[in-house]
Amino acid sequence: MLKKLNSYDDLITMKKSSDKKRKQDKVKVSICMTGCRALGAEEVYAEFSKQIKKQKLQNKVEVVETGCQGLCARAPVMTIDPPDAPSIFYGRVTVDIVPDVISDTILKGEVIKKLCYAEAGKKIPYLEDIPFYSKQNKIVLRNCGIIDPNSIEQYIENKGYDAFAKALFELDPEKIISVITSAGLRGRGGAGFPTGLKWGFCRKAQGDTKYLICNADEGDPGAFMDRAILEGDPHAVIEGMLIAARAIGSEKGFVYVRAEYPIAVNHLRNAISQARKLNLLGNNILGSGFNFDLEIKMGAGAFVCGEETALIASIEGKRGMPRPRPPFPANSGLWNMPTNINNVETLANVPIIIAEGATWYKQLGTKNGAGTKIFALAGKVKNTGLVEVPMGTTLREIVFDIGGGVPGRHGFKAAQMGGPSGGCVPEEHLDLPIDYESVKDVGAIMGSGGLIVMDNETSMVDISKYFMEFVQEESCGKCVPCRVGTKKMLDKLIKITKGEGTRGDVEDLKEMAHVTQTASLCGLGQTAPNPVLSTIRYFMNEYEALIK
Questions:
Q1: β-bridge partners, 211
Q2: Quick one: 28 exposed, middle or buried, by C-beta within 10 A (0-12, 13-18, 19+)?
Q3: Of 84, 251, 302, 324, which has the fewest Cβ atoms less than 10 A away?
Q4: Are residues 398 and 523 in the same domain?
């Protein structure tokens, strides 16, 4: 039973007590129970629990449900951590193999080769030796796949809420904003606006009530970074929100999350409940006099609600449609009160920055992009999954060194970066160090981090049509340039892909794209033409081949 914490000392005492309990010579078996459920992880976990009990191994083995462990291509995945020994990684685990894992690996220390990751015909049993993991730098995802997301005790054991306590008792709000600004943290959800500057606007805004919103409306095709963070480490987001709330002077927060993310919602709901019971949310938190509480708002899955003003309208109970800015949410947002909105990954960066300091954080990444970025690596690549690397890592390193390259005999053709708001980056830019500006220079955007790899068999005109179908369907229809512009562009792309294109169609597409970009009300319409323009820029020959 969770006991209320009335002071900073109580938090430290709880941490020490949890540490002591955990320091046992048990083998830890960690099973991904989020995305891996689709391929039988629940059954594997149940069989493990049954066998451990049946063989009376409870004092020797601990089975832990975790969030995403990253290498989704090998799902269902698990790691086995013997005391004082390297982690063993097993993939494509099935129920029938569980007795062998217990008898051979857990009890005898022997590796089962057929479950190991393989590269160039070589079996690699230990997680630290697998290039997919060894070439990453997990900062935001440091707890995902390691701790039980439903256990606040395990989060606290791993330095959880230490940064919040530091922000609460050692730093004033201006100093918190100063640290975040100095660290160079930029929004991880889209345009990369400086987070400290954004917080400063809201803190200075006039208003007795200020709101803090976590934007978890992740709708890009192929993107699941925010979902994975909420599923695997929900307390990191709550801690980031607590620090942000103290910085801007807010006592009320919302997490706007898609209803089609049931595991994320359940884990977040459980985490909020646990934090309240421990007095880490609510009134007079840790006896400091600081008040802040959270509420979950579930969205219906409209892509446009990722836009700040549409998201605010949705929370207010209205149809999720954007409005012109100014006024900006920092001055007039939710119910016309000053409101700060950050996405999940941005907020999950905050605790580590406060804990380690701005100088430490700035050592990661590039001059224009500090820290790390999480990418959802999907498409025609061997190691699909969740990847966290420092800004400045090249596309080649992500796709080939970490992702294992393109399977089969087909070569790399392009990578769609930034989802429907982004663009296709061709092979000639594989060695471009990725950060906000460099990606924009080649016609894409960082966006939320969706990264879809395409091989030489992919039709880039079809890709362009696919993304235009998506944004045309997701357009809220409020402004004419977006509503009509995306429809006209889609009609033109359908015509071309049917082989009915005529000379002048590409020029028409460019003109319509320009008008839609410059005249649309919100980011959806302003970025909708990006996939079209980038494919025309780099793969014009494919358009010409389809036009008579």
A1: 252, 339
A2: middle
A3: 84
A4: no
Cross-strand bridge partners of residue 89:
79
The residues near 194 (Cβ < 8 Å, ≥ 6 apart) are 181, 184, 185, 186, 187
Looking at the DSSP bridge assignments, the partners of residue 255 are 214, 296
How far is 308 from 339, CA to CA, in rounded Å? Answer: 10
Give the Cα separation of 105 and 82 in Å (integer). 9
**At a CB cut-off of 8 Å and minimum separation 6, what does 484 contact?**
none
CATH number at residue 379: 3.10.20.600
Contacts of 77 (CB under 8 A, 6+ apart): 31, 32, 36, 69, 71, 89, 90, 91, 92, 93
**pLDDT score for 314:** 97
What is the rounded distance in angstroms from the CA atom of residue 404 to the CA atom of residue 126?
A: 17
Q: Which domain holds residue 489?
A: 460-545
Instruction: Kindly report the average pLDDT of the chain as a whole number.
Output: 95
Sequence-distant (≥ 6) Cβ neighbours of residue 255 within 8 angstroms: 213, 214, 216, 237, 241, 268, 294, 295, 296, 297
Distance CA 366, CA 433 (A): 9
SS (H, E, C) 490-501: HHHHHHHHCCCE
- 3-state class (DSSP) for residue 155: helix
What pTM was computed for the model?
0.96
CATH label of the domain that carries residue 84: 3.40.30.10
Confidence check: pLDDT of 23 > 80 = no
d(CA 244, CA 411): 45
Residue 113 burial (C-beta neighbours within 10 Å; 0-12, 13-18, 19+): exposed
Residue 181 has pLDDT above 90, yes or no: yes
Residue 205 has pLDDT above 70, yes or no: yes
Residues 186 and 303 in one domain: yes
pLDDT (tens digit per residue) in 426-469: 999 999 999 999 999 998 888 778 999 999 999 999 999 999 99
